[in-house]
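Notebook p. 47: complex prediction with NCC.
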Amino acid sequence: TVKLSPEKLLCQLRDRVNVTMIQGSDGPFDTFEWQQYLPGKSLNETVGHLGRCAVVSSAGSLKSSHLGQEIDSHDAVLRFNGAPVKGFQEDVGQKTTIRLVNSQLVTVEEQQFLRETLYNTGILIVWDPAPYHAEIHEWYRKPDYNFFQSYKAYRSTHPEQPFYILNPKMQWQLWDILQENSLEHIQPNPPSSGMLGIVMMMALCDEVHVYEFLPSKRQTDICHYYQKFQDRACTMGAYHPLLFEKNLVKHINQGTDEDIYTHGKVTLPGFRNVHC
Ligand code: NCC
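Predicted complex, structure tokens below:
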């Protein structure tokens, strides 16, 4: 169902998806108040040049994977939302370089978000589902979840921890590519945190290994490796176009099918190593 060759698709991702964070010079954030909250350094300056990176999905199939050591061998590790490491090191490792969280978590679970030490490690990045190709001003007036107060509260209590807001343009630039390469019509809902994180790491790293985004032989209806809750929609998608995301990632995988089957592992090039 994917139309472009893997090489062409990688070029489209590299050239059309702008992985940028909200800066103090952007639209409604160019106020004196916001300058005090947004990080002074850019994300690129904060992370530096990253070589091998790991993206760890939160899928239940990570359970009993024993992938912890392999994941920790990377220069940087990306995790999502409330995915814990404590008690799960054997399967998911213990290193967290970046944690990408959705605005629902930051807003609806604000008390846990502000209190739990899980969030105090590494660089935080929050994203919010914006209206389709909305300008930053329009999104700022009508975010899906109004996480801005909670963001400010977190920044005040943890001023030293880098905490970025993902530029909402990225999600629809990526969604357009997903739609163009699918035969079916996709609901206009933004990509999952997992897919956003994969493309973000392709922009920051030389090489990216993604774990259990494409499910291995351990595939299960258990939603998360850290919970008992079961729901097939976690792997297949309901709100997010997860199935289309997974088809696309399968198409551009540079690793083997054996790696997917045994480790749930996908190998993707960093955009620096994509030559168009
Ligand atoms: O579940 P979630 O995702 O936090 O998972 C992070 C990313 O891992 C991939 N995943 C997860 C489970 C699974 N069985 N297979 C997978 O491939 C997906 O790529 C997923 O994006 C999200 O994307 O932000 C999401 O967040 C949760 C929830 O908001 C957070 O965990 C915070 O509590 C959403 N769940 C609900 O709203 C109930 C989920 O739909 C999407």
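Notes: Residues 57-60, 80-82, 102, 104-105, 192-195, 213, 223-224, 234-235, 239-240 surround NCC (CB under 6 Å). The mean pLDDT is 97.
Next step: compare against the earlier run before touching the bench.
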